[in-house]
Structure formats: C-alpha cells, structure tokens
Specification:
The chain has 16 helices and ten strands. By secondary structure, it is of the alpha/beta class. The protein folds into two domains: 272 residues, 3-Layer(aba) Sandwich (Rossmann fold), CATH 3.40.50.1240; 128 residues, 3-Layer(aba) Sandwich (Rossmann fold), CATH 3.40.50. Strands 1, 2, 3, 6, 7, 8, 9 and 10 form an eight-stranded mixed β-sheet that branches. A two-stranded antiparallel ribbon has the order 4-5. Strand 7 and strand 8 form a beta hairpin. It is globular, with a radius of gyration of 21 Å.
C-alpha cells in the first residue's frame, strides 16, 4: 500500500517544512507573459449545515454560522482580497500589469463557476487586485447551477465496462484491499474522530449499532451526469473534518473549534488525512480524473494555446495577461490527477487542496534562447494566514510550491519547455 504512508508523510510535513521563496524571474532574460490562476473558492459555511448524518454522529451540538450553508463568509471575502492584493504586487513586480492604474480592456479575464461562493470569491479577488477598477467577473449559466466547465461529473456512458474499469482504478489507487482496506488502515484516524465527536454515545452508535467507523461498509457511486462519490465512513468523516477546518479558518474560538477537542498539529494532520484521502482516492484514480477533469482541462488547454482556443471565453483567457478561474477542491484534485502531477507537499497547510489556494500556470519567454517556458506552482495561504486574516504582500507572501506534471520535465528553477507542456496536455486530453 503506497498511498496511505505517502499521504501521512505529506500531511505531517505540512507544518514542518520551510517556507517556499517567492517566485520571480530567474534572470533578466526571462519575461513573464501570461498567467492563468485556477483557484478554489474562499471560506464558506458548511455545505449541508450539519445534516442528519453529522448530527446523529455526535452528542455535541454543532455551532451555528451567521452565513448560510455553502455561501462565502465575509471573512472568506477578506482572505480572498488579500490573495488578490498579493497577485497584483507579484504581477507588477514581473512587469505583467501596472502596479497602480487599472488594467486595460482585455488584460484581465475572470471566470467563475455559477455558484454564489465561487462568483463572490472571484469578485473579492478582483477587488483586492484592482480596487476601484471595472473588472467584470463572468459566469455562464444560471446562478446556483454548475457550469459544465467546472462540474467534475461523470460524462461517460456508465456501462458495465466503464464501471468495472473505474472501480478497479479506484480500488487500485486506494491500495491493498481497496476502499475497505483503506478504511482499516485509517482506523487510528477514525478513532481520533470518534473521540472528538463522542461517537460512542451518539445515536448512530447506540440506536443503529454502528460504533466502529473503520468496519462500516463503503460503496463507490458512479452515475452519468453526477459527481462520483464514496459512501460510508470516508464520506461522513470527510464532512466532519471539513467542518472543523472551516471553523478554524473562520476564526471560531479554539474552545468552539471541534468543541475544543483538537489541540495539536498532529491531531489536525490525522483528521485532515481522512479528507485528503477521500479526494485523492476518488479523483486521483486515473479513470475518474481523466473523465471528470476533461471539460476544465480542455478550457485551460485552449486558454494557454492559441490553436486550441475554440470558445469566446477561451480566446478571452488566451489574450489576457491574467486569467482567473474559480471553482472547487474537486476541480483542482481531478485536474492535478488528470495532469499526472508528481507528488507534492504544501508546507503550513493540512489540506491537499486548501481554501483560497490556486494552481498557477505561467507562460515565460526566454529572450536569450527565444523560446517559451511553462512553470506551474501551487500558490496558497497557510492555515495560520487564513485563520489570522493576514494581509499578504511581496514581503509577507502566501506559500508557493512548484509542481511537475508527467511529460514536462522541469529544470532546477521549475521551468519546462512550452512545447513539452503542450504535448503533455494533448496526451492527457486524449487519454
């Protein structure tokens, strides 16, 4: 079993590794020409507002949020404005956009999924980056509905062959014993969660006799036109740990975050590993990732390569100096899996796809050798920066971690030839 130890190492190191240095031009011959930011939305209230399963899994009372379930919180907007301010300073430092005045028409393209939290996240990013400027945020379908570009659903015909291939892929990715084996290896993590939630005295345990999360059955749900999922303890535990992390981000008093039961980084790491593995097992499996990420990957390919730009939005993104896309953790998880991204660690974070974090595609031009280069980085605020609502700047930046995708070999500075990146993208789209 490879995935579990690797992920434990990644999350454990998240609070131990040194801060990444800001990314600037490695030499005077390098010129940053185009940036595409694929961001996760900011802090939101819990999606289901502690629905029946979570309510019945604890004797504690879940705290009430002032923001309606699923919507961006006011603090989430502020954190996103800090990210926008940082990106503006970084772009100005690299002479992509001016430091003060508003960008010219067409220099910035902002496109969000049509849910309120993603639209509002994009608006706050733009407000932080370009205060007082008329930079529109576009969304393409009715508000409250998922835009196909950002909807990580199963688009293939879910016939027996697809089901068999997808299930084999997911179980293989989960490691020995498939998802059931993964649940057994997560038993120490589940035991901590059970303690935090007082699960042994909950309704699910006392009335329904479901007292051991690790031994509860799981099933993979694959339906054409719907997002894939895994039922059972992984899903419930992911919902609970996500709620705790959001409480921490939002700035709840620590006595109210997980009812005061999480007091160490080790505990956070242990609990967040459950959620990380849920997304990694589901969207990291090649069969699911290739299908779920294809609409977004197709859009990004068109935005970064003129020959692939077919829609008006792709052309607008391709012509812009800065293209901002705002979606969800499932978008980033499936995108990175579809690109076959090499393993990475995010120092200072517990999440693999953190709130307000972004995968940043950068097209650089080497004037000396007259060739284009691609650099991909994960740019994200640390857990403490989010909780403390820390203003971000060149002197106090978010974290930056260089990513490498299969088929696009990077040098010591993190650059790979643009033609290799384009070929790798096309290969992933055809896979």
């Amino acid at each position: 079993m490879k995935i579990l130890p690797r992920t434990f190492v990644m999350t454990a190191l998240a609070c131990l590794l040194p801060v990444s240095a800001p990314s600037f031009a490695a030499s005077s011959s390098l010129e940053l020409q185009q940036v595409l930011v694929m961001s996760r939305h900011g802090i939101r209230a819990p999606l289901v507002n502690y629905g029946d399963v979570l309510a019945e899994s604890t004797t504690h009372t879940w705290p009430k949020w002032q923001t309606e379930g699923g919507l961006l919180t006011p603090k989430g907007g502020k954190v996103e404005e800090h990210m926008g301010q940082y990106f503006r300073a970084w772009l100005a430092k690299n002479q992509v956009l001016p430091a003060a005045q508003c960008p010219s028409t067409g220099q910035v393209f902002a496109y969000a999924n049509s849910l309120p939290r993603t639209i509002d996240t994009a608006k706050h990013f733009v407000t932080g980056a370009f205060p007082g400027c008329d930079v529109a945020v576009v969304n393409r379908v009715e508000i409250g509905k998922m835009d196909p570009v950002f909807n990580p659903i199963i688009t293939a015909d879910v016939n027996e062959k697809f089901k068999t291939d997808a299930l084999n892929s997911i179980n293989q990715h989960a490691g020995e014993g498939g998802i059931d084996g993964l649940n057994q290896r997560l038993k120490p993590n589940y035991l901590l969660l059970q303690k935090v939630m007082d699960y042994q005295n909950s309704k699910l345990c006392k009335q329904d006799k479901q007292c051991d999360l690790a031994s509860q059955p799981s099933a993979v749900v694959l339906v054409q036109g719907k997002e894939p999922g895994i039922t059972g303890p992984l899903r419930m535990a992911t919902g609970a740990t996500d709620a705790f992390m959001l409480q921490y981000y939002e700035g709840f008093p620590m006595k109210d975050v997980a009812w005061g039961q999480i007091t160490t980084s080790e505990q956070w790491t242990k609990l967040e590993t459950i959620k990380n593995l849920y997304h990694e097992t589901l969207f990291g499996s090649p069969a699911i990732a290739a299908n779920a990420a294809k609409p977004l990957l197709t859009f990004i390919s068109g935005a970064l390569n003129k020959s692939d730009a077919k829609s008006a939005d792709q052309q607008s993104a391709q012509q812009a100096k800065l293209a901002l896309l705002v979606g969800h953790d499932s978008n980033i998880a499936s995108l990175l899996a579809a690109l076959k991204t090499k393993d990475y660690t995010l120092p200072g974070q517990y999440e693999r796809t953190p709130i307000s974090g972004a995968v940043v595609f950068q097209r650089w031009h080497d004037k000396k050798d007259n060739k284009d280069l691609m650099k991909i980085e994960y740019v994200y605020p640390t857990a403490k920066q989010i909780r403390n609502n820390t203003p971000l700047s060149i002197k106090n930046p978010p974290q930056r971690v260089t990513l490498q995708i299969e088929g696009c070999e990077i040098n010591k500075q993190g650059f790979c030839p643009m033609d290799q990146f384009t070929q790798a993208l096309q290969k992933d789209l055809q896979g």
